[in-house]
Design goal:
single chain, alpha/beta, seven-stranded mixed beta sheet, four-stranded mixed beta sheet, 26% strand, globular
Length: 270
């Protein structure tokens, strides 16, 4: 029941939040051209954002980020002046949303898939966003010049961590990889970190140093289990973050049991 209620209310969310809903319908039917512009209505005195999208999946992600505000509602509202990190930036939905709402802050966006990274850059230009540093790189537990990025389906579903038997059947793209230690060492501060990296969150966070984790004030992320993160349990991340001084809240996904939202706030910064 909760699944169908979620889909039902999502239709109204899209109808209310998207200006050019005809393009949305064409995307849903698969009859839109390969790339089209999705326009959101203005909100809270800010102009409506515009996104170049490839599919209805892209539009759905924008709904979750910019209309449902998933990364805020499970944690805290973004504040102007914050330094924000976006790991798994995709087409730029959260990056651009955060940069617009924090004009005196700065967003550091990391996206490893070249096609999505190019789309991220186009969407920054489309919205005249300048307070963003975008890097075409994966984040993982180790720094390497070449790491395979496994393409699991849609352009938003890519990961650097899969078991060998699963990885062998998938198309890959090589990308560079940085560690979370490297990312945070270059920042003056990290007020908010958003993460959506298709199961790689375990590799990233479990291999980060205690000093790096202590620098992160707030963390809001999608966590994965099952086929995307075989052998992993989100409780691993909960326990690890709590041991490193975070208060953690875990919220189930309304549709998929293998997904959830994790919000963590570092006690020392509260």
């Amino acid at each position: 029941m909760s699944r169908w209620l979620y889909y039902f209310f999502s239709i109204f969310t899209l109808a209310r939040g998207v200006r050019n809903w005809l393009q949305l319908i064409l995307l849903l039917l698969g009859r839109s051209r390969q790339e089209t512009i999705l326009e959101l209505r203005s909100s809270r005195g800010l102009p409506g954002l515009r996104f170049s999208v490839r599919s209805f999946m892209d539009a759905w992600i924008i709904k979750e980020t910019c209309l449902d505000r998933d990364y805020e509602k499970h944690g805290t509202t973004l504040q102007d002046g914050w330094h924000i990190v976006d790991i798994g930036a995709g087409l730029g939905d959260f990056t651009i949303f955060a940069a617009q709402r924090c004009p005196h802050g700065y967003v550091y966006a990391y996206e490893p898939f070249p096609e999505s990274f190019a789309l991220l850059r186009r969407n920054l230009e489309l919205n005249n966003i300048s307070n963003v540093q975008a890097v075409c790189s994966a984040i993982s537990g180790r720094a390497v010049q070449s790491v395979p990025l496994y393409q699991m389906g849609e352009a938003v579903q890519h990961t650097t961590t899969l078991p060998a038997d699963k990885a062998a059947t998938l198309k890959t793209t090589d990308t560079i990889s940085l560690t979370l230690d490297q990312v945070c060492a270059a920042l003056p501060q990290c007020d908010f970190m958003k993460m959506d990296c298709e199961g790689a969150e375990y590799d990233i966070l479990l291999n980060a140093s205690a000093a790096t984790l202590a620098k992160i004030k707030r963390l809001s992320m999608e966590v994965h289990e099952g086929l995307i993160a075989p052998g992993r349990s989100r409780q691993e991340l909960v326990d690890h973050l709590r041991r490193n001084g975070f208060q953690v809240t875990l919220t189930p996904n309304p549709v998929h049991a293998y997904l959830g939202f994790l919000y963590a706030a570092h006690i020392a910064h509260e």
